[in-house]
Amino acid sequence: MTEVITGGCRCGAVRYQLEAPPLFKHMCCCRDCQYFTGTDKMFIVGGMRSAFHLTSGSVRHYAVTADSGATIHRAFCPQCGSSLLIYPEVDQKHYMPGDDVVGVAAGSLDEPGAFQPDAVVFTSRAPSWATFPEGVEQHP
Ligand SMILES: [Zn+2]
Ligand SMILES: [Zn+2]
């Protein structure tokens, strides 16, 4: 039986599902994640884009150039503004491994406590008051 991970936004307009176990569970402290979440970091549960489906509603998104130079889209509910998704732009000519993933904001999962983070990334960008979970790998 395939594990199905479900979630959506605060108002219920947008619903999604990820039809495979997560590939990664990262907390990201980059500046873009700070803007997206309004706090020090974003807990991102990532999976293959082919396993991800919106099951109702549609999202709005904006694109930003990440520190890596990649174009990253950040999607939210157009009605309630809940932060929902992050995914790299798929550039067919300059395809990179990882371009076919999508990350969901763990706070938008139906069970936000279902997963534990496996790494904290961009800790060097975190504000001075940030705290990190114990026993979890940290990458500057
Ligand atoms: Zn909504
Ligand atoms: Zn980030």
How are the SSEs placed, and which strands pair?
Elements: E1 5-8, E2 15-18, E3 24-28, H1 31-37, E4 42-48, E5 52-56, E6 60-65, E7 71-76, E8 83-88, E9 101-105, E10 119-121, E11 137-139
Parallel strand pairs: 3-10, 10-11
Antiparallel strand pairs: 1-2, 2-5, 3-4, 4-9, 6-7, 7-8, 8-9
Q: What's the total number of strands?
A: 11
Give the domain tally.
Answer: 1
- The overall pLDDT, averaged over residues, is 93
> Which secondary-structure class do the elements indicate?
mainly beta
Q: Tell me what portion of residues adopts beta-strand conformation.
A: 35-45%
The unique ligands bound to this protein are: zinc ion
CATH architecture: Alpha-Beta Complex
- Please give the alpha-carbon distance between the first and last residues: 38 Å
CATH topology: glutathione-dependent formaldehyde- activating enzyme (gfa)
The ordered H/E elements are: EEEHEEEEEEEE
CA gyration radius, whole angstroms: 15 Å
Q: Uncertain regions: pLDDT < 50 for 5+ in a row?
A: none
CATH class: Alpha Beta
**Portion in helices:** under 10%
The H-level CATH homologous superfamily, spelled out, is glutathione-dependent formaldehyde- activating enzyme (gfa)
Shape: globular
Q: Strand order of the main beta sheet, please?
A: 6-7-8-9-4-3-10-11
